Each structure stands twice: as C-alpha cells, then as structure tokens.
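Q: I'm building a small set of examples for a reading group on sequence design. Run inverse folding on the following structure and report the sequence directly after it, with nothing in between.
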C-alpha cells in the first residue's frame, strides 16, 4: 500500500502496491501493519456497501461526533465517484478545508477519511458502487452532517448534483456545524 498525504491532517489517497505477472495482479486492500506504520487507524469493525443508481447522486457530507468519530477507507468497485473529505476538527490548521479525488475500479485508489472529517461521494456514472471500512459502528445519536453545497466550504463537484436525500438536503451549513463542534 502506498499512502499519499493530501495536506489535510491524516487524510490520504491509498494506492495499491500491485504485483503483476502474466496471470494478472495481486495487491493488498488492507494491511493492519502498513496502516499502523503510516500512523492511521487500523481497527474497522464495520464494512459498508453502497450503490447510487443514478449519475449525480450525492451521499453526504456525513460525520459522527466523539466518542463515535469514525475513520473510513473508501473504494469504488463499480462506476466512478468523486470522493470528498472536509476537516471538521476545530483545532486543526486545515479546519473547514476540503479535498476530493475520483475513485474508480480502474484507478483502484482508496480514500482514507480520518476521524473528525466529514465525508461525501458523488456518483459520476449510473450504478456507482462503493465499499468502505468504518472504524466505528453507526451511532444515530452522534450522526451529523454538513450541506454538500455550502459556499463556505466550496467543494467543486465535477458534475451537477441531481439526486439528494431529504436528510442530506437539510444538514446545516458549515458555520452552524462548526459552532456545535466548538461548544
């Protein structure tokens, strides 16, 4: 596994270290020792699978409050997604900054989402599917979100957002979310 830091805390793109020969390739998707050596979370008690039926579907921006804050490792296994993270740690020098990258089955990149970060993905093709490891179980009482289109964060989504759940449509803007985190 190759870890490429993106300039927001521990957020990084993970590139597979592929061993290829005439049969194809072999690569590790997860290695506890390599994650630990990179200073990242290694415990993932939950693995989730999500499909977005239509191009332009957004899921997020989601995060959980402590003690249920979760790190994630996200991989696209069908279609293509634009995966975005936002630093929601009030004491961080990159608080409120974002990073995004395209994840596809062909590029085989994975996004490491640190604890304390909001996460969203936008489907770039119909029937886009992701699998992601979560370091904490879903905790409904600790779930929070942030508007995907808040100009204060300014995420530049590569295609128009056309499908949004009712829940994701009503998350507060960054200023309200930040005030709660600072309280």
């Amino acid at each position: 596994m190759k870890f490429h830091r993106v300039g927001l805390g521990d957020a990084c793109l993970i590139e597979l270290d592929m061993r290829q020969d005439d049969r194809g390739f072999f690569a590790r998707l997860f290695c506890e020792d390599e994650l630990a050596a990179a200073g990242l979370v290694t415990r993932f008690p939950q693995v989730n699978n999500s499909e977005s039926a239509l191009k332009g579907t957004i899921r997020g921006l989601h995060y959980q409050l402590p003690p249920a804050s979760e790190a994630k490792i996200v991989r696209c296994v069908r279609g293509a997604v634009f995966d975005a993270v936002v630093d929601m740690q009030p004491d961080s020098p990159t608080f409120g900054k974002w990073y995004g990258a395209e994840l596809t089955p062909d590029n085989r990149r994975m996004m490491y989402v640190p604890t304390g970060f909001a996460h969203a993905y936008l489907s770039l093709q119909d029937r886009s599917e992701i699998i992601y490891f979560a370091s904490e179980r879903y905790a409904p009482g600790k779930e929070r979100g942030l508007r995907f289109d808040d100009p204060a964060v300014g995420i530049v989504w590569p295609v128009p957002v056309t499908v949004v759940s009712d829940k994701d449509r009503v998350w507060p803007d960054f200023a309200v979310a930040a005030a709660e985190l600072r309280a």
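Helices lie at 32-37, 166-169, 174-182.
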